[in-house]
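Sequence in, structure out.
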Amino acid sequence: MSTLTILGAGVMGSAMCLPARDRGHTVRLVGTHLDREIIDSVRTSGRHPKLNVKLPDGVQGFHHEDFAQALGTDTDLIVLGVSSAGVTWAIDRLCEALKGPVPVVMITKGMHPEQAKLTALPDRVATEVKRRTGIDLPVAAIGGPCIAGELAVRRHTGTVITAHDAGLAQRIAAMLETDYYHPRVSGDVIGVEICAAFKNFFAIGVGWAAGHLEKMEATENRAFNHNAAAIIFDQAIRELMILVRAHGGTEQSVWGMPGAGDLYVTCQAGRNSRLGNNLGRGLTYAQTKAGPMKGDTIEGAELGVTVAATLRAMMAAGALDRDQLPLTNALLDALTKDKALEISWASFHRHG
């Protein structure tokens, strides 16, 4: 059996305790500076207050200042479960604590913007750790449709583990596979990571349809607005394909679990869909953040704000065709220019 140290005690990082412990691994769960109450609860009662479940027996809780102690000299795999906003903080902690290369698998979703392209977060972490410590850190990532609350009660869950080193991805998959956690392996790091990040972004657009229904005149048969949502979902997949191709990724990631599968799950509920609902009702992003979603972290919106300049620069340079990305541009304008989210239906059908 192996020893896994999980950095980040939020819902997804903590849900990974289930397959890890069920495989018999030693699990050390390290909270961030925002997770003190969670770690205290895990230590005293074993319960995770946000997942509302008791974690498996044997999960050891550590506060962030004790990360080096948790890591020790016997950790076989680090699971990085911080939010996208916490990646820089996590890189700092890794650089402080690592004495040599320890494999890392990231469940963090996001992209690092550069001037002319987007970089996958696993590559960003490996590059920064190498630059600052000289350590060649093997970094993999997990994508695909995984709702933490379902994994935490052992519902069937399929994911994709991706790494540039196929052997690393295979080893991690073998460590985590159970009769309910079903990882597959992919070498398409950039494709899987673009899908993992942008599914939150595009879920905002799909969520627009349900919110807009509330502005529409009620009909005798109480019809919903699912047809409109399906059109937007289709366009999201088309544009996700364009973004993945432009960065050298493969189509399989888009139509498989990392893309279509994860977008489907994300559209069922959650903060990205709720933001879309509010935009569909006619609120702007700023009005939503100041009102019904004040204080909420909305990862799809944060991604859009973060990557907007890079995507627009790629369009200006011809690396992306602006005319083929009407949904992307509408979302970027809504998030960065505080415009209403306008769905350009005719543009969706104009480009195959």
